[in-house]
Amino acid sequence: MAQPDKTETPIIFAPKTFQFDKDELDESNLKENPIQLFTQWFDEAKECPTEKLPEAITFSSAELPSGKVSSRVLLFKELDQRGFTIYSNWGTSGKAHDIKTNPYGAINFFWRDLQRQVRIEGTAEYVNRETSERYFNTRPRGSKIGAWSSPQSQVIKSRDQLDKLNKENTERFKDSKDDEIPCPEYWGGLRIVPLMIEFWQGRPSRLHDRFLYTRESENDPWKVERIAP
Questions:
Q1: Which PROSITE patterns match (predicted)?
Q2: What is the pLDDT of residues 140-151, one digit of tens each?
């Protein structure tokens, strides 16, 4: 990778360093199965009054053959024994294209006030239709109609075009009860089956506690190791 000769003048330079000093993580805190430890940490994030959106994640995917990586903030919606599920438009979105060319994804949770993060990497698989519909039926009416209205990630001429599509679908479903609005075929859940889960606890002087759970496949046992910060 080429390195530029010129030293650039920063637009933003070195904001004041924040010191992590709230907690620690050691071997005595670990679980044999990382899903158990994640569930504990997620429950603690939900109970923390200053963690307003503990289900917020950064979801990353990469397109092949270019290798270009893209990230976006989404909401994590479901955990089962197979993995972590998000819901979205898998017909037109950028991440849909990435997953079609490269069925792997990465998730990052960051709980600022607990000074913790969890990184997850693994294989991507679509959940079945029943699972997608089960979640879709919990969504507010407007969100259901919105799923029908937005050609996600595609270029639109104006906000008016989007509002027109939404108005047309509002009219289309005006006689339908909330639970009668169907889930679009292109919309549903994507599960990341984890092959790596890292638990990170912030510590002073950037000497953080990090433990990495890894396995070769979903049928293999987990191995856990401490890694340097």
A1: PYRIDOX_OXIDASE
A2: 999 999 999 999
